[in-house]
Amino acid sequence: MKLMGVDVGTTNIKAGLFDYHGSAVKLASRSTPTRQTEEGYYYYDPEELWNTVAAVIQEAAQSAAGEEIVSVGIASMAEAGLLVDRHTGAARSHMIPWFDTRTMEQIEQIKQAGDPLERFAASGLRANFKQGLSKILWLRDRGGVDLQDTKWLSMGDYIAYRLTGRMATDYSLAARTFLYRIDRKCWDESWIRQFGLSPDMFPEALPAGTPLGTVLPEMAAGLGLSKQTTVAIAGHDHVCASLSVGAVTPGIVFDSMGTAETLVGMLSERPLGEAEYATGLSYGCHVVPDRYFWMGGINASGASVEWLRSKLSGSELMSYERMSEMLSHTKQEPSGILYYPYLSGSGAPNPDPQAKAAFIGLTKSHEQGDMLRAVLEGTSYELESIRLKAEQIAGEDIEHLIAVGGGTRNRHWMNIKADVTGCRITVSQVVEATLLGAAITAGIGVGVYKDANEAAASIREEQRNIVEPHAANHAAYKRIFNQGYMPLQAPLRQYYNLHE
Prior knowledge:
Blueprint: E1 2-8, E2 12-18, E3 24-31, E4 35-36, E5 42-43, H1 46-61, E6 69-76, E7 81-85, H2 104-111, H3 116-123, H4 132-141, E8 150-154, H5 155-164, E9 168-170, H6 171-174, E10 180-181, E11 186-187, H7 189-193, E12 204-206, E13 211-214, H8 217-223, E14 230-236, H9 237-244, E15 252-257, E16 261-268, H10 274-278, E17 282-285, E18 291-298, H11 302-312, H12 320-328, E19 338-340, E20 358-360, H13 368-394, E21 400-404, H14 411-421, E22 424-427, H15 433-445, H16 452-458, E23 465-467, H17 471-485, H18 489-498
Parallel strand pairs: 1-6, 6-14, 9-12, 15-21, 21-22
Antiparallel strand pairs: 1-2, 2-3, 4-5, 7-8, 10-11, 13-14, 15-16, 16-18, 17-18, 19-20, 22-23
Helix pairs in contact: 2-4, 9-15, 11-13, 12-13, 13-14, 14-17
């Protein structure tokens, strides 16, 4: 028996075949085929993207060695989507990625249409250019798309439709349209109609992992699947990933370290109000039943490291080995420099797309290694600001992080994170957390696992690396965070505004 996960990601589209214990049998990957219009708008061609997904599924399925692939779980980037004909399923628009900024005009219209706190209480979100609503309005008003008899499908929904012929979504992806009520688990019909849209445009929303049906008979053999293989929408990619590493209790936070860094935690479902709004975090329905997730991000985490790496290099890009060597020669204590990692604006707890990065406290005695260390400290301070806000709304201490991603290979960074936050950090050995999370979510849906806890207990990893905080460093970092990093936020942001 095998389980398959599919991850429709920003950079790559992947499929993974796993056994019951989460061991990867086969991983397949292709670059996500991203295009640009003459105006500079980014998009995906639906047929080209589907063919890419089909190719990785077929490649991964070839390693099943005759064993049954019982289910396919599909995770995807959260806010990307397209309009299709509700009767034929034919694409009526191209797919708009989450990062395309063409909808800035529409988002201003949306912000003026409702009270921000009221909308947050219903959706768990603030209005943002990424969301499905702004994309639909742009397609109607600027893209020339006739919305009659259309359905809006996220990326994961579209792939599930192509596999099964059924149009549906899951709660976690539905919410990223800014048109779904997570408090009632239904489409917000009055809000939808306020924009001249029809509630019929939106597919049935189901819990993550709900079986949608089996693979269409005419395509099963060509994909290496069977007519009995069940397909499920696993949902939001980061939330699926948190499940794969066992971050399924409120006191444990998932930390995905990449170009951007994303933190995902869990809390019981409850009404959202001013306290949750004030955190700057986003909220949604978890893939674990009857739970919400909270999410915060650092837009330029690994990107800050790569930026400085490029600036410190000569004709050849500095190697990671050289960076590690430089860090090893710095004092293993606070650098004395504050770095604000806002190369791409700031996220929670103070969302501001106009925020700018900054170094504060440089002296002539500082070396390149000190600046590298400061960047690692700055991203860790930002993580700490998110963690503290999440603790307030979770109502309990957050003392354990489970980290995945390329950044975990930098031992200096992991030590600094532990020292700044005072948290124990587990470095997971799961290579493809989103793929495994998608496979597990579908596996729960078909009954391979009883629930998320059983699934997490079934996953076998190699020895995990545990990073513990150093008490003296933690005390020093805590003082700098409280007396330096946070108090300087306000004047720094005021300075940004003076130069806009």
